[in-house]
Amino acid sequence: MQVVFLTVVLDLLGFGLVIPLMPYYAESFSASPLQVTLLASIYSLAQFFFAPLWGQASDRWGRRPTLVLSVLMTGVMLAGFASSSALWMLFLFRGLHGVFTANIAIAQACMADLTTPETRARGMGLIGAAFGVGFTFGPALGGGLSQFGLAVPIWVAAGLSFLNFLLAWRFLPETRRPDSAASRRSIDPTALLRALRHPAVGLCIALTFVYIFAFAGMETTFTLLAKHQHGLGALEVGLMLGVVGIVGAAVQGGLIHRLVRRFGEAVLLPPALGGVAVGVAAIAYAPLTVPMLAVFVVLACGQGVASPALQSLVSRGVGAEEQGEILGSNQSMSALARALGPACGGWLYEHSSPEAPFLVAGALLVVAAAIAVPAGRAALSARAAG
């Protein structure tokens, strides 16, 4: 588990390095606010198409070779992004970067291989904690390095990916059973539709879309709000997001296991999503600095519970031979939401008001909290029946 955790930490640390400087970097190529958010969308759109294929590939050919390959190519595409000289090149390499970082489903499948249904939330919580570590130190480090040039953090992220490749090549074990029936299954691009119709987890996968769509729309437009409404630079944005990452990592790395053991994922999910809804909506009007940080702490606590609880429900609702495909499809829905959410958020920011993306996202998260009740029941009922 520790090796998988380290692999995801390095992967997400490189991703987190780029987050606070993305609008500033894109605007240096004369990108509009809508183009800035579309740059995030094309990355996630690529993940939408490729996450199920990576998950199925890991079912068929093994977790280790697919994860190692994707990590290597992540470094290559980051290097291309850092050396771009025109806006169209940013879109090209950002899209290809999304193709190869659609690999979180492989890490989730590794955790599913290594855990029992009873400890699944803890394993998924470690993946979430890896996100937290990446988003804690990545944005803060990226913001600091941006003082030496906007491309510098991207080159550092590429270097981390190459280091991750070497470590994964040397230490990452194969976790999939060699006699798995999935090794004889062909790669099927229609897996996402099959997953959405799944009687146990289809509703959970749909919930993933609503939740991530709302959150991604807020996440991308926050940097624009911070820059244009509050006058913050990449360093200040990175440090603020770093505080959020610390809270999220603490919740997902330790607290989530005790909460799930006492209450269960299905009980925790609706109030956690409600907490995220409150935090997201409050960002629109929270003043700097302490009130804004307090809002982000509320948001991070809710997300720290909601994300691993939802991933655990998806994983627990299916058998071992479906883990890669179903988790890949769930990751794909997350990627589609991350493609559409920023574009919608950018449109609302540019054509309605700076507050609109946050208020709309909060309303959608209230809907997600309502969907979570029947979604959790379906996943647990199917597992109990199996």
Structure explained in plain terms:
Helix 3 (33-61) packs antiparallel against helix 4 (63-82), helix 3 crosses helix 6 and helix 4 packs antiparallel against helix 8 (152-171). This protein has one domain (2-171, 191-385): MFS general substrate transporter like domains (Growth Hormone, Chain: A). The radius of gyration is 19 Å and the shape is globular. It is built from 15 helices and no strands. It has helices at residues 2-18, 22-27, 33-61, 63-82, 87-100, 104-114, 120-145, 152-171, 191-196, 202-228, 234-263, 265-283, 290-316, 323-351, 356-385. 81% of the residues lie in helices and 0% in strands. The model is unreliable at 181-186 (pLDDT under 50). 62% of the residues are buried. The protein is an all-alpha fold and 386 residues long. The two termini are 26 Å apart.
Q: Number of helical runs?
A: 15
How would you describe the oligomerization state of the chains in this entry?
A: single chain
The helix fraction, in percent, is: over 70%
Question: What is the element string, with H for helices and E for strands?
Answer: HHHHHHHHHHHHHHH
Q: At the third CATH level, what is the topology name?
A: Growth Hormone, Chain: A
Walk me through the topology.
Elements: H1 2-18, H2 22-27, H3 33-61, H4 63-82, H5 87-100, H6 104-114, H7 120-145, H8 152-171, H9 191-196, H10 202-228, H11 234-263, H12 265-283, H13 290-316, H14 323-351, H15 356-385
Helix pairs in contact: 1-6, 1-7, 1-8, 3-4, 3-5, 3-6, 3-14, 4-5, 4-8, 6-7, 6-14, 7-11, 7-13, 10-12, 10-14, 10-15, 11-13, 12-13, 12-15, 13-15
